[in-house]
């Protein structure tokens, strides 16, 4: 028995085969692309284009005086402090109060359409009939009416849900949701099927919240871009212009309200600051009066100067007192000594001392010439004594005067020192009072300045944001984008069939050609049998050069490399997994092809449960067959053999009568005897056996085969059958197994065999005679 080592095959991606699979389905791709592109064109033709409308705002940078104690009050003007404020303003632009005013001012909750067969065209500026909602009920969302039967000043509104309403223009009309009034513009013609849609204003506000987009392209530059996508450019531009206008008006109202509140705040603060400033000034005045201060600094400097001068004078007086004390000691001495003079004392005292010294000198000169008793000398002594008494009195008086002066100066110095000692404390208190006064004065002046600035802001109407670009609409629509949609349709047209075929290929587990077998099995594939039409000849004829004949010639050639070399007949068993895979077709045509004058072949119909060989015989067969030989030992082989009408070198043994016990007959040993007997008479014995997955009959006779041809049918047999065949070989139930792929179409899963070229080159030109369109659409 054949022993094979099976190895797990690595999965390899055959890119060429994969691509050819999809190329084989190219008509589906073209059809899908055409359908998708035509659908896209129809969509673009009848869709309502949407355009983007933009407007740009610019905000001024607010300059804050950070050195001011009340810098927060500097934000009274227009402008933004930083980019964070800009982000908050972006939310204000689309706030509901502003959008509600936009809806009311533009009457956006009433829309007008000229209806068409496929699409409606919305009107905004030139409206022949306009309306407004006066009142509406709670819970009202929207309601649609069609204007019909316009007759002069009368009209009829028709609603599918609420019926007809007839009224006159400029007269309130009660509808299902509330009260409306319609106005007629007689300069414009009203087209048939003129549609009016009334909506709740809050619903329109919600819609604007979703459609209006606010972007900040450059936060540092304080720019804001507002955009809106709509079908009517004039409407979108009016909405954005009204949004910016209402935003500036809202900012102006906020600024005025802020300015008014600031004015009240400043006035209240001025009253408080005025009272505080008056109290501080009174406190300063009281402090000056109590401490007799006009200028504390000047007075302190004057006290220091007086103290310095008095100290100098005190030193001078003390020096004079010392001189006078010395003179007193000199005056207490005898009358014969001169007294010091020119000491800077009192002039009268200096004069008395000078007279005394001169008289004393005159007396001493006289004593040199006369005696002490001389009357002149006596008179001089008397005068000297008198002058000395006068000098003593003057010195005493001078001393008293100097002492009095010294006492007065010391009192003045003590007074100045006392004043100087009080200066630090008084200066501290005085500085505190002045500090409060300066602070109150600064705050008072600042509030006065801000009150003037606030009055200017109230009188000047400056917009909160400058409109850099008024609302404008781009020329190219944002949707639908024709190029993108057509390219998308082309892509979807290619992707859709690709996805479908990809799924089909993934879930498809059928065998189509030899590559599918090679991908799952290590067993060889000898040949691919081409697919045949019903009107084609299913038997290989003499001198046959058809695709079928060429394929079986290839099979015979490949069998020579599979069959063993032996003198007796080479036994070839043909089997399959299930019924309908072409096992009998292969058996019959193999027997017809391999038989020749140098070696006859014998075809044995061994599928006794479901005989099929007789289908290929031109005459009914009523002779004995294999079944009769197996259960009746008296039957001879010669009674079973029938020569084929197609090939005289090919003999056939038919299956015979269908028995009730085929398994027992095939395993009774008679079949092996038949093969042994026929092996000496034929070169090849072909066994048409039963399918392996349905019955076990074939396994009972598999031991007589030199080679087994396992037939699978393209597009019918499944991959699991390959695994089943491999399991039989692994279990040594079959030997020398090779696959034959039957009914392979020319484009089986993209494999692309062209048998005209491969098998019938130069002999079959039927394909060339066909029209070119038949070749294109042939599957």
Key features?
transferase; six-stranded antiparallel β-sheet; 21 strands; 779 residues; disordered C terminus; P-loop_NTPase; LPS_length_determ_N; EC 2.7.10.2; non-membrane spanning protein tyrosine kinase activity; eight-stranded mixed β-sheet
Concise overview:
The chain is an alpha/beta fold. The protein is built from 21 helices and 21 strands.
Classification by helices and strands: alpha/beta
Uncertain segments are: 1-8, 64-77, 749-779
Strand content: 15-25%
Count the helices. How many? 21
| Fraction of residues in H or I helices | 40-55%
Average pLDDT, rounded to a whole number, is: 80
Q: Tell me the total number of β-strands.
A: 21
**Overall geometry:** elongated
Biggest sheet: strands side by side, in what order? Answer: 14-21-20-15-19-16-18-17
Biggest sheet character:
8 strands, mixed
- Rg from Cα: 67 Å
Alpha carbon gap, first and last residue: 42 Å
Subcellular location: Cell inner membrane
EC number: 2.7.10.2
Transmembrane segments: 26-44, 484-507
GO molecular function, one term: non-membrane spanning protein tyrosine kinase activity
